[in-house]
Design a protein that fits this description.
The protein has 254 residues and is an alpha/beta fold. It has one domain (8-184, 219-244): 3-Layer(aba) Sandwich (Rossmann fold), CATH 3.40.50.720. 45% of the residues lie in helices and 17% in strands. It has eight helices and nine strands. It has helices at 17-28, 40-50, 64-78, 102-130, 151-171, 189-193, 200-208, 219-230; strands at 8-12, 32-37, 54-58, 83-86, 133-138, 176-183, 186-187, 217-218, 241-244. The protein has a seven-stranded parallel sheet, with helices on both faces. Helix 5 links the parallel strand 5 (133-138) and strand 6 (176-183). The chain starts with 7 loop residues before the first strand and ends in a 10-residue tail after the last strand.
Length: 254
Protein backbone atom coordinates (compact mmCIF):
# COMPACT_ATOMS: atom_id res chain seq x y z
CA UNK A 1 0.00 0.00 0.00
CA UNK A 2 1.13 3.54 -0.73
CA UNK A 3 1.36 6.20 1.93
CA UNK A 4 -1.03 8.43 -0.04
CA UNK A 5 -3.48 5.82 -1.29
CA UNK A 6 -6.83 7.38 -2.15
CA UNK A 7 -5.66 10.97 -1.67
CA UNK A 8 -6.14 13.73 -4.24
CA UNK A 9 -3.45 16.39 -4.47
CA UNK A 10 -2.85 19.61 -6.37
CA UNK A 11 0.79 20.63 -6.85
CA UNK A 12 1.56 24.02 -8.37
CA UNK A 13 4.80 24.58 -10.24
CA UNK A 14 4.91 20.84 -10.90
CA UNK A 15 6.30 21.10 -14.41
CA UNK A 16 9.91 20.87 -13.23
CA UNK A 17 12.23 20.72 -10.24
CA UNK A 18 10.77 20.17 -6.79
CA UNK A 19 7.19 20.19 -8.07
CA UNK A 20 7.84 17.54 -10.69
CA UNK A 21 9.73 15.32 -8.25
CA UNK A 22 6.89 15.69 -5.76
CA UNK A 23 4.25 14.86 -8.36
CA UNK A 24 6.08 11.66 -9.29
CA UNK A 25 6.53 10.59 -5.67
CA UNK A 26 2.94 11.48 -4.71
CA UNK A 27 1.69 9.34 -7.59
CA UNK A 28 4.05 6.49 -6.71
CA UNK A 29 2.61 6.57 -3.18
CA UNK A 30 -0.93 6.22 -4.49
CA UNK A 31 -2.25 9.77 -4.94
CA UNK A 32 -4.10 11.27 -7.87
CA UNK A 33 -2.15 14.40 -8.78
CA UNK A 34 -2.90 17.59 -10.67
CA UNK A 35 0.17 19.06 -12.35
CA UNK A 36 -0.60 22.79 -12.19
CA UNK A 37 1.98 24.83 -14.09
CA UNK A 38 2.13 27.77 -16.47
CA UNK A 39 4.60 25.94 -18.75
CA UNK A 40 2.42 23.71 -20.93
CA UNK A 41 5.21 21.69 -22.53
CA UNK A 42 6.87 20.83 -19.23
CA UNK A 43 3.58 20.20 -17.44
CA UNK A 44 2.29 17.86 -20.12
CA UNK A 45 5.63 16.07 -20.13
CA UNK A 46 5.55 15.39 -16.39
CA UNK A 47 1.94 14.23 -16.52
CA UNK A 48 2.71 11.89 -19.42
CA UNK A 49 5.70 10.43 -17.60
CA UNK A 50 3.50 9.61 -14.60
CA UNK A 51 0.57 8.15 -16.50
CA UNK A 52 -3.04 7.74 -15.39
CA UNK A 53 -2.38 9.04 -11.87
CA UNK A 54 -1.62 12.55 -13.15
CA UNK A 55 -3.44 15.29 -15.04
CA UNK A 56 -2.03 18.56 -16.34
CA UNK A 57 -3.85 21.88 -16.11
CA UNK A 58 -2.25 25.09 -17.33
CA UNK A 59 -2.31 27.35 -14.30
CA UNK A 60 -1.16 30.89 -13.63
CA UNK A 61 -0.91 31.00 -9.84
CA UNK A 62 -1.46 34.77 -9.84
CA UNK A 63 -4.92 34.26 -11.39
CA UNK A 64 -7.78 33.62 -8.98
CA UNK A 65 -9.77 32.08 -11.82
CA UNK A 66 -7.00 29.62 -12.66
CA UNK A 67 -6.47 28.67 -9.04
CA UNK A 68 -10.18 28.10 -8.51
CA UNK A 69 -10.10 25.72 -11.49
CA UNK A 70 -7.48 23.55 -9.80
CA UNK A 71 -9.85 22.96 -6.89
CA UNK A 72 -12.77 22.39 -9.26
CA UNK A 73 -10.70 19.66 -10.98
CA UNK A 74 -10.31 17.84 -7.67
CA UNK A 75 -13.94 18.16 -6.61
CA UNK A 76 -15.60 17.48 -9.98
CA UNK A 77 -13.23 14.71 -11.03
CA UNK A 78 -12.53 12.99 -7.71
CA UNK A 79 -15.03 14.31 -5.20
CA UNK A 80 -12.37 15.40 -2.73
CA UNK A 81 -9.22 17.45 -2.15
CA UNK A 82 -6.80 16.13 0.44
CA UNK A 83 -3.57 18.01 -0.28
CA UNK A 84 -2.82 21.41 -1.78
CA UNK A 85 0.90 21.94 -2.32
CA UNK A 86 1.70 25.58 -3.14
CA UNK A 87 5.11 25.00 -4.66
CA UNK A 88 5.26 27.46 -7.57
CA UNK A 89 7.71 30.30 -7.10
CA UNK A 90 10.25 32.43 -8.90
CA UNK A 91 13.74 33.58 -7.98
CA UNK A 92 14.84 36.96 -9.37
CA UNK A 93 18.44 37.70 -10.22
CA UNK A 94 20.59 38.78 -7.30
CA UNK A 95 20.55 42.53 -6.81
CA UNK A 96 20.85 45.02 -4.00
CA UNK A 97 17.61 46.33 -2.53
CA UNK A 98 18.49 49.78 -3.88
CA UNK A 99 18.89 48.50 -7.44
CA UNK A 100 15.85 46.21 -7.28
CA UNK A 101 13.32 47.28 -9.90
CA UNK A 102 9.77 47.88 -8.74
CA UNK A 103 8.30 45.77 -11.54
CA UNK A 104 10.45 42.80 -10.52
CA UNK A 105 9.45 43.15 -6.87
CA UNK A 106 5.79 43.27 -7.87
CA UNK A 107 6.15 40.12 -9.98
CA UNK A 108 7.97 38.14 -7.27
CA UNK A 109 5.36 39.15 -4.71
CA UNK A 110 2.55 38.21 -7.08
CA UNK A 111 3.86 34.69 -7.68
CA UNK A 112 5.47 33.87 -4.34
CA UNK A 113 2.94 35.49 -1.99
CA UNK A 114 -0.32 36.04 -3.85
CA UNK A 115 -0.02 32.64 -5.53
CA UNK A 116 0.26 30.88 -2.17
CA UNK A 117 -2.62 32.89 -0.73
CA UNK A 118 -4.86 32.05 -3.69
CA UNK A 119 -4.07 28.35 -3.34
CA UNK A 120 -5.06 28.37 0.31
CA UNK A 121 -8.06 30.64 -0.29
CA UNK A 122 -9.63 28.28 -2.82
CA UNK A 123 -8.59 24.97 -1.26
CA UNK A 124 -9.66 25.67 2.32
CA UNK A 125 -13.46 25.78 1.88
CA UNK A 126 -13.41 22.27 0.40
CA UNK A 127 -11.09 20.96 3.10
CA UNK A 128 -13.09 22.60 5.90
CA UNK A 129 -16.27 21.01 4.57
CA UNK A 130 -14.52 17.63 4.65
CA UNK A 131 -13.08 18.22 8.10
CA UNK A 132 -9.53 17.40 7.03
CA UNK A 133 -6.75 18.37 4.65
CA UNK A 134 -3.09 19.25 4.37
CA UNK A 135 -1.77 22.54 3.04
CA UNK A 136 1.93 22.49 2.11
CA UNK A 137 3.79 25.65 1.07
CA UNK A 138 7.30 25.85 -0.34
CA UNK A 139 9.28 28.49 1.51
CA UNK A 140 13.10 28.60 1.74
CA UNK A 141 15.98 28.96 4.15
CA UNK A 142 16.15 32.46 2.64
CA UNK A 143 12.97 33.18 4.59
CA UNK A 144 14.72 32.27 7.84
CA UNK A 145 17.94 34.25 7.56
CA UNK A 146 19.21 37.39 5.92
CA UNK A 147 21.00 37.02 2.60
CA UNK A 148 22.66 39.86 0.73
CA UNK A 149 21.21 40.69 -2.69
CA UNK A 150 18.11 38.51 -2.22
CA UNK A 151 15.78 41.12 -0.79
CA UNK A 152 12.69 40.25 -2.83
CA UNK A 153 13.07 36.49 -2.65
CA UNK A 154 13.89 36.40 1.06
CA UNK A 155 11.04 38.76 1.90
CA UNK A 156 8.49 36.67 0.03
CA UNK A 157 9.68 33.39 1.52
CA UNK A 158 9.60 34.87 5.00
CA UNK A 159 6.03 35.89 4.25
CA UNK A 160 5.18 32.35 3.14
CA UNK A 161 6.35 30.98 6.48
CA UNK A 162 4.20 33.44 8.42
CA UNK A 163 1.22 32.89 6.12
CA UNK A 164 1.54 29.17 6.81
CA UNK A 165 1.54 29.71 10.56
CA UNK A 166 -1.48 31.99 10.34
CA UNK A 167 -3.33 29.44 8.22
CA UNK A 168 -2.49 26.69 10.72
CA UNK A 169 -3.81 28.76 13.61
CA UNK A 170 -6.96 29.72 11.78
CA UNK A 171 -7.87 26.27 10.48
CA UNK A 172 -6.70 23.84 13.16
CA UNK A 173 -10.14 23.55 14.75
CA UNK A 174 -11.51 22.50 11.36
CA UNK A 175 -9.03 19.64 11.10
CA UNK A 176 -6.77 21.33 8.54
CA UNK A 177 -2.99 21.20 8.85
CA UNK A 178 -0.68 23.77 7.23
CA UNK A 179 3.09 23.47 7.04
CA UNK A 180 5.94 24.98 5.05
CA UNK A 181 9.04 23.31 3.69
CA UNK A 182 12.24 25.38 3.69
CA UNK A 183 14.70 23.91 1.18
CA UNK A 184 18.38 24.77 1.30
CA UNK A 185 20.66 24.46 -1.71
CA UNK A 186 18.81 22.13 -4.06
CA UNK A 187 19.86 21.13 -7.57
CA UNK A 188 17.01 21.93 -9.94
CA UNK A 189 16.87 23.17 -13.55
CA UNK A 190 16.46 26.69 -12.14
CA UNK A 191 19.66 26.31 -10.10
CA UNK A 192 21.64 25.59 -13.26
CA UNK A 193 19.92 28.19 -15.44
CA UNK A 194 20.74 30.95 -12.95
CA UNK A 195 24.45 30.15 -13.26
CA UNK A 196 25.18 30.29 -17.01
CA UNK A 197 28.89 30.87 -16.41
CA UNK A 198 29.28 27.57 -14.52
CA UNK A 199 29.13 24.07 -15.97
CA UNK A 200 27.11 21.26 -14.42
CA UNK A 201 29.94 19.86 -12.30
CA UNK A 202 30.89 23.29 -11.01
CA UNK A 203 27.35 23.97 -9.82
CA UNK A 204 27.18 20.59 -8.10
CA UNK A 205 30.52 21.21 -6.41
CA UNK A 206 29.47 24.68 -5.26
CA UNK A 207 26.19 23.39 -3.82
CA UNK A 208 27.98 20.50 -2.12
CA UNK A 209 30.15 22.92 -0.14
CA UNK A 210 27.25 24.91 1.27
CA UNK A 211 26.21 22.61 4.13
CA UNK A 212 27.76 20.11 6.55
CA UNK A 213 26.25 17.05 4.87
CA UNK A 214 28.71 16.43 2.02
CA UNK A 215 26.38 16.50 -0.95
CA UNK A 216 24.04 18.88 -2.71
CA UNK A 217 20.34 18.69 -2.02
CA UNK A 218 18.02 17.22 -4.65
CA UNK A 219 14.40 17.77 -5.61
CA UNK A 220 13.70 14.25 -4.35
CA UNK A 221 14.84 15.30 -0.86
CA UNK A 222 12.15 17.94 -0.76
CA UNK A 223 9.57 15.65 -2.35
CA UNK A 224 10.13 13.13 0.45
CA UNK A 225 9.36 15.80 3.05
CA UNK A 226 6.25 16.81 1.13
CA UNK A 227 4.96 13.24 1.01
CA UNK A 228 5.39 12.97 4.77
CA UNK A 229 3.46 16.20 5.32
CA UNK A 230 0.76 15.01 2.92
CA UNK A 231 0.42 11.66 4.64
CA UNK A 232 -1.33 10.72 7.85
CA UNK A 233 2.09 10.06 9.38
CA UNK A 234 2.30 13.81 10.13
CA UNK A 235 -1.24 14.05 11.47
CA UNK A 236 -0.11 15.95 14.62
CA UNK A 237 2.17 18.38 12.77
CA UNK A 238 0.93 21.84 11.85
CA UNK A 239 2.21 25.42 11.74
CA UNK A 240 5.78 24.28 11.16
CA UNK A 241 8.59 25.45 8.89
CA UNK A 242 10.29 22.14 8.11
CA UNK A 243 13.90 22.85 7.15
CA UNK A 244 15.48 20.45 4.63
CA UNK A 245 18.94 21.88 4.10
CA UNK A 246 21.64 19.38 5.04
CA UNK A 247 22.36 21.31 8.23
CA UNK A 248 23.08 24.62 6.50
CA UNK A 249 21.14 26.82 8.91
CA UNK A 250 21.72 24.95 12.17
CA UNK A 251 25.18 23.42 12.08
CA UNK A 252 28.35 25.47 11.70
CA UNK A 253 30.51 24.00 8.98
CA UNK A 254 33.92 23.03 10.38
Amino acid sequence: MGRLDGKVAVITGAGSGIGAASARLFAAEGAQVLIADIDEASGHGVAKSIGDAATFLRTDVTSSTDMARTVEWAVSGHGRLDVYFNNAGIVPSDTTLVDLEEAILDRVMAVNIKGVWLGMKHALPVMVAAGKGSIINTASVSGLRGTANQFAYGATKGAVIQMTRNCAAECAAAGIRANAICPGSVLTPLSFSRRPNMNHDEVVAAFTQRQPLPRAGTADDIAAAAVWLASDESIFVTGQAIVVDGGMTSIRRV
